[in-house]
Amino acid sequence: MFPLEQQNNRENNNNNQEKDNKLFALSLGVIVLLSVLGIIFPFLSFAAALIWPVPIVYLALKQGMRRAALLIVIAAIINGIFITPTLAMITVAGFGFVGFVMAGSLLEDFSAFKVLLFTILAAITSNFILMAGVSLGMGYSFPAGIRDALIDNVLTLLNNGELSVLVEMQIELIINMLPGLIAISGILTGILNYYIVHWFLRAKKMQVTIFPSVEKWRFPAKIISIAIVISILFRDQIVMLNIAAVAFFLVFIQGFGVGLYYIAKKTQSYFWKWIYVFLLIVIPVLPPVILILGLVDLWFDIRKIEFN
């Protein structure tokens, strides 16, 4: 190789290294900035949780899983030292774990469905790890200790004996359903993480296949129906109660998808989709209607019905 060629190669390597370092620093900066914003403005914490995996997945696709792992470790150290140790745990076992699993699935060239499935499973696992970690860190066992702590702290604020009994019953129900609620939270977070990351990758002109949106989702009718029937029949058992909660949530997602489907047929504007979500949140009667819609759609594909 001629001296000039060697010099050009060295310059190219230096330029590539500089670009890689800049991307790494930018990714780290985004994670730390989101962490700070989530602490200063708590109402932004959920939005931060949805965006956090983006820099991890993008860096992994550009520079490999080792660099992504290094990014997670450095971000955890910074968050733990300068913000809070709890956030360090969230960085590793929370969004770091979810982003790492999603990136690994993409690099393994899994199908879009498998990438979505592994992302959701990672989010569910992450939620259980974080809940158990925070509970143990506060000196409570999981979930019995949480129940006792809630009852002790809440009931001391109530003087009405009758009201205290009702509140205790509600707390008991929530604690019994806690595993199901954690799983539901993981399903929702995993779905949103998946689509936000993939929308970003598409915006960066990266060739990724995105699983069809929720408006086209249909779950297996037999499996969901059997799960609902059996869990209702044996609802006195805590496991069945949680299975029922998750099954009904999946039915709700399907009903929600039916609504999105007909909105998308009328307009591609995101404005009306956000209005749809907003109305579901503020009008109490709508979620049960969507749930019933999902139950009907399990066996009768409502999307085949044409409305003028």
Q: What's the CATH topology label of the largest domain?
A: Arp2/3 complex 21 kDa subunit ARPC3
Q: Can you tell me the CATH architecture of the largest domain?
A: Orthogonal Bundle
| Structural Rg | 23 Å
The shape, in one word, is globular
Strand content: under 5%
Q: What does the average pLDDT come to?
A: 85
What structural class do the secondary elements suggest? Answer: mainly alpha
**CATH class group of the largest domain:** Mainly Alpha
Separation of the first and last Cα atoms? 72 Å
Total DSSP E strands: 0
What is the string of helix and strand elements? HHHHHHHHHHHHH
Which regions have little confidence, pLDDT < 50, spanning 5+ residues? none
Number of domains: 2
The tally of helices reads 13
What is the share of helical residues? over 70%
Secondary structure layout plus pairing:
Elements: H1 3-40, H2 45-51, H3 53-63, H4 65-82, H5 85-107, H6 112-137, H7 144-155, H8 161-176, H9 178-203, H10 221-233, H11 238-266, H12 270-282, H13 286-299
Helix pairs in contact: 1-2, 1-3, 1-4, 3-4, 3-5, 3-9, 4-5, 5-6, 6-9, 7-8, 9-11, 10-11, 11-13
Structure overview:
The chain is an all-alpha fold and 308 residues long. 80% of the residues lie in helices and 0% in strands. The chain has helices at residues 3-40, 45-51, 53-63, 65-82, 85-107, 112-137, 144-155, 161-176, 178-203, 221-233, 238-266, 270-282, 286-299. The model has no long low-confidence stretch (mean pLDDT 85).
